[in-house]
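Two records follow; treat each independently.
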Amino acid sequence: MFKVFSSLRKEYLLLINDKVGLALMFLMPLLLVFIITIIQDSAYKMVNENQIPLLVVNHDAGKEGDKLVDLLKKSGLFKIDSQDAVAEKSLKSELLSRGKLIGLYIPKTFSSGLESNAADVSNILMDDLGLERDSVNTEKVSMPTLSFYNDPVLQENYSFSIMGIIQSYMSVIENSLMIDRMYSTMDLGGQSEELKRKMISNRVKINQIVASNNNSTAIPNSTQHNVPAWTIFAMFFMVVSLGSNIVKERINGSFLRLKTMPTTFMLVMFSKMAIYVLVAVVQVALTFSMGIWILPELGLPKLTIPTNLFAFACVILISSMAAVSYALMIGAYARTEQQANGFGAISIIIFGAIGGILVPTFVMPGFMQFASNFSPLHWCLEGFYILFLKGGSWQELKNVFAFLGIFILLCQLATYFKLRMERII
């Protein structure tokens, strides 16, 4: 026991004397979780809660343009800034000068074009049914085209979403005009209101359900995504501290001196793993505590801990062992501290990028989604996502434990054979 205690004490002293490594391992995850969660939560609120600023220029000579603007206002989705005096050719510069991201131009022929199209549809329907209709020719006006302006910094999928919303309200106006026109053609004017109300009220409703394998009501939010993700990222960044410590001990001859002592070198490696696995667990405790108690005080969503606490502890433990094993391997193969720090840090960033830490894997192209399966950070994150967001069971976690177990074994074997080749073991 004295040998174990002495070995653990040595690793502890090395750890606390590495001020830069401690800062990277403890301060970095707290700052990452704090900053990224605030940024992403603001983005979620902009899309889900806040009204979208919309600059509207309505030059319509009829009343349908006003109806469209009124529908957009009543939707509660948009904060309308009406600037009907602005010329169409000046709308681009007006949009940018006012700091708006999107603008909508309604042309002068908007109402007349919709009415002409409704008349054509009504006439076709009457002819197909063999019913008599008024043969008075009306002036043909081409279908109007709305102009949607957006700031070039706005993401394309966001622009398409807004255009889809506007198109849905356009459909309400178009359908209303067609019904009015058909009733008028059949000399049933004024009797179309009941049908229009019925069509609007009897739309198919969509019930949103979050897919989960238990009865948990936890809703995915910025905290549930970011706290586990950036905690994993920070856990693997211990390669900067642990990797450089191993290189220093190899260079200054500490490993050779340890061989002359009445102990096994495997005890030394075990002590390193034990101390740094404990460090990783403390990292998780700190960042998750922030998600539970500190972030809610700032108006951010609270982190909800999974109900399967044993599985939660197992995911933390195997993720910690994966991070420590990788750091040991980098330390064994690096020739200098600069190599260990440089390659270790860059490789973790690459693993994080392809593993879904920086960008979600579902938005990546197919070959990158395949490549993400070779990132240990991806499987660590997947383990937390299964627990936090999917109410996961052991059955779902089996792939996570299988890949991380293989990864840990390969890193340990690579470390062993490298030290064996150098006759340190």
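The next record belongs to a different protein.
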Amino acid sequence: MHDRLSALDASFLFMEDPVTPMHVGGVAVFERPSAGFDYAEVLALIGQRLGYLPRYRQRVVTVPGNLARPVWVDDVDFDLNYHVRRSALPAPGTDDQLFDLVARLVSRPLALERPLWEVYFVEGLSDDRIALVTKTHQAVVDGVGTIELGQLILDESPAESEEFEDTWTPRRQPSRTQLVLDAVTETVQRPGELVNTARVAAQDAVATVGKVTEAISGVAATLRSVARPAPEGPLNAPVSGGRMYSVVRTRLEDFRKIRAEHGGTVNDVVLAVVTGALREWLLSRGAALTSDSTVRALVPLAVSDAETEYSSAGLIGNEVAAYLVDLPVGEPNAVLRLQHVGHAMTAHLDSGRSVAARTLLRVGGFAPATLHSLGARAANSFSGRFFNLVITNSPGPQEPRYAGPARMTEMFPVLPLAKNQALAIGVTSYLGGVYFGLNGDRKAVYDVDLLGGMIEEALEELKGADW
């Protein structure tokens, strides 16, 4: 039988609509080496690595009558040139032009009749830089069998381009009759599966959320612990088809100094900085904040388990727990905001299952892109009534990474928006920098650039804050 989508993966397909595509993106910026690095070399590099990721040559096929969840089948018409695309900015392209392009690219859903990923090779950037923009559907990346493509094409040292000869041979696509027979066979073996499939296919909200929350470690327990919905505000608004994407560049050393001065973790400082920025942003929108005002963030974190071992992909299984954290936007004192955030995170981390950043960085092959993807999966398993925005923070390598001979200089995550979730923030550290990627709805969060500037101001406020 063909590989059937899990209940979690299938739910991401069923939940998707034209204005809320369920893919995770990333932007990696590279220095073009003196010997050059062109589209053909990128095509060859990705083609060489696809042999390690069979899922990237498979597409989703539904079962007639929704008798069972869809299956993964080899794409007999797989076209690498379709998935790895060439784009260019009018030279010398600015960063603003690049991120405007990113916003347009990530707003477009992936074609469900093809393998669910795309890579854009963007040329024309100033200072002889190039960028790779990736889009990968959440149904693809599970952190164990399949990792994010960006994890596989980045190496610890530069590599010369090699000739690529594609010798892959797809398996024959199953007929409709075979799909039905396989579904009937599974139903006989597991009769309860038919009921579950029918519920998911009908997009029964209660059944889907319950099914999905049980599939991500820690989410169901967290959901049960929340007795009230998230505070109302401009972050929870109907999502349109357009996006605004902005980035913020900061230095890791600044976060470490604040941690040393005021305690907590680097992640606490990141969340406190975002809290300060959200406070100023809400005030700029005319929000009436009180001392008790909060914004609830869903913060996915990698966790470990006594029986979990490191997988060959270099991640700790697919163990990502989604924690709900009330960010104290009503608190005017920056240090007190940090203390509140640290206290809230400590309550979650006392479970003993959290994975420290230093542990993740010791795991061979770890890449932030995969953890951001897993974080987005955890976030979208939640009912949006319980949080206002998603914030993922993934530690990255502090040594250079390369795509072929090209040295990566910056990396920015792009998290998807769910229904009525108008903002998502991804944070990644790399090579001494901490990079924020802000994905906002074009109508509801049209001023995402303003929020990005406020992140920089909130960091400066904490750097100069006294006890």
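Discussion point: Residues 197-227, 304-318, 352-366 have pLDDT under 50 and may be disordered. How would you locate this feature using only the token line?
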